[in-house]
Design goal:
Protein name: Na(+)-translocating NADH-quinone reductase subunit F
CATH topology: Trna Endonuclease, Chain: A, domain 1
Helix content: 10-25%
Number of helices: 2
Organism: Aquimarina atlantica
Number of strands: 6
Number of domains: 1
Largest sheet: 6 strands, mixed
Length: 125
């Protein structure tokens, strides 16, 4: 039986996509939080022990996955600076492969728009 994916399921799908990229790039996971609306989703370190906060956002058509709330990001950047962490934003665009105006369905194909991890400069503002 086919059904529409919930917001939490869309979020989990986006997290899986981003998590695979982080693994391929050699990051070590310190914490993972898949609860919708809780940030960051991933806390990880690189080979030099630099800490990273990774913010994952699943975005449905027609919204642009590469855009984020700039005002909210400023408050999050402050938190990252206090924790001596760098910030990645990962906007994951997901849409129904047959009709972009329809929701994603369980076990059905989808179109992915993902540009990879975007570094968010914490020292600029």
């Amino acid at each position: 039986m086919t059904r529409i994916l919930t917001k939490q399921e869309l979020h989990n799908l986006a997290m899986n996509i981003v998590g695979e990229e982080l693994e391929k790039k050699g990051f070590e996971f310190i914490a993972i939080n898949s609860t919708l609306g809780k940030h960051p989703q991933f806390v990880c370190i690189d080979k030099s022990n630099q800490r990273y906060f990774v913010l994952v956002k699943a975005v449905s058509y027609p919204d642009n996955p590469h855009n984020y709330d700039i005002i909210w990001m400023e408050s999050f950047k402050k938190h990252a600076i206090e924790q001596e962490a760098k910030v990645f934003y990962a906007g994951v665009g997901l849409q129904n492969s047959e009709n972009p105006n329809k929701p994603l369905l369980l076990n059905e194909e989808y179109i992915l728009e993902y540009a990879g991890l975007q570094i968010i400069e914490t020292h600029l503002n």
